[in-house]
User: Fold these one by one.
Assistant:
Number 1:
Amino acid sequence: MTTTPSAEATDRKAGVTPILEARGLVKRYGHVTALAGSDFDLMPGEILAVIGDNGAGKSSLIKCLSGAVIPDEGEIRLDGQPIHMRTPIDARGYGIETVYQTLAVSPSLDIADNLYLGREPRAPGIMGTVFRKLDRGKMRAEAKQQMTELGIMTIQDISQQVESLSGGQRQGVAVARAAAFGSKVIILDEPTAALGVKESAHVLELILKVRDSGIPVILISHNMPHVFEVADRIHIHRLGKRIAVVTPKTHTMNEVVAIMTGATEPGAVGYDQVVKDAARKEPGHAAEALKTTKDG
């Protein structure tokens, strides 16, 4: 495996412990190896983009980190301590929340009900303990506060049904739910995939607000402009493992795509310049290196 000695190495030298890390993750489905000794590091207070071509294994990696899949080998650590997750509920218990591409919101319920879906607070006293009545006043008050803190109170009524919201607003509800209960890490799977330009910009702004609130974010996306707009670091996944870690400040979009697709291979001419040279203060261009690689 090859990684760049970029922000990751700098953070480790400075003694910063990754808030979420994985070492040597292996996941096999019969004869197919989805993860082949994959490593992962998420630093505190950052947005880490995870990118990779179709079939690279990034979905399996994220499923392992979110408790949806149990790896066959390897270790996952949270705040430096090993953790074992068998279900997404276990991940939630550790403060890891995931917003999937399908959003997993209930269109027929209102915003407050969706924010507390599966975690509804009971009314105080006998009405809650015996008759299991929900504390809807508390739910709506806290839901409104959460939406306001994230700057997404463009919604007129907190009690309106989610099916009446736009795509961007629905995404906002899902992210707000994750931010409300994700005390450690929030994982966002393709949050702008089905959105227009204006709504995508709003969601990206929302992601930055979540990061600024102190919660690190893992962003899975195929949209390179969006990745370069919000990501602090970029985890490049290929052939079941992490092939490089770069930053938007050290590498250009073309370089990142070249690494992701295998246009630059380990050992090839120009590979060191494109992948390992993460010490640059400004993005450089490896056009000549790539040309030499292809010509060779």
Number 2:
Amino acid sequence: MHSTSRKTLLKRLAAHTMLASDVPVADDSCNWKCMKAENLDAKPANAPLANLEEWEDFLKVRYPEDSTAKPFRAADPEKKKEQCSNYEADARPTVREFYRLNHLHQTYDFVQAKKKEFLSLSRRQMGIWEAMEFLNTLVDDSDPDTDLSQLEHLLQTAEQIRNDGHPRWFILTGLIHDLGKILCLFGEPQWAVVGDTFPVGCAWSDKIVFHQFFADNADSLQPRFQTRTGVYSETCGLDKVHLSWGHDEYLYHVVKDYLPTEALYMIRYHSFYPAHREGEYQHLMNAQDKKMFDGVRAFNPYDLYTKSHEKPKVEELRAFYQELIGEFFPAKLRW
């Protein structure tokens, strides 16, 4: 259990049983400036990252572009451990703190509370394009590497998929896959919106980045959560497995009645890096999961590597994408 005492962990376990309504929720008018680094002293648990792209930048270092869509298989396991140590050691302090908070707070009970809080989908009614414009109010003027808006980032991903000749549902998936990040605008802290997702309620794979931070997670005191299958069973299927809470799961529940199964897997599991890039948790997957993860891996390069400085021409593209949205979605969805 490292340096953390059992008494301290028991206190944390008790704290994690609080109702989701006890977690502060920001006003809808809150934008990214509410969570910028300049405010870290006021809200240290909410925004260790200067911007959400810091997490994605770390992923690009961890998974270079030439290794995309293939689970890592090291001929020498010690070399794999060395590489893991290197990218963790080289990570920015803000990224380390982000993962520390994520691994501390993402417990089984926390995930259940967040699902209860958000999956009634009772906060807003918006169409897809309207939701994109709402996400666009997540102002990120702290990123020196790009002056692109959130909406422009979404269009970049969709346009690359379109240019590569993929089906219309695939293009639409690229357009909307990050819309769950509007959780930030509902007051959720960064570590409950983005981050590599992982199952809660069973043992944590040692392939999860910054695995050592799980030592302070209250679930480490629960023996039923610390076995290979935990509260699940072999080949039960991922639909029965609770992953850490974030934008993937939230958006999945918003759109699950409207898109093909392949698209829903891409949306729900695109941040599940321990599975689609490290090959972990195969024992919890059923046959459909394993088949659908081929699509998740095919989607991953578009998720990580399509951002550039070249701005898409939003007004020229609007008509095409509004027609595409109308092909699959009603005028309004519950969020």
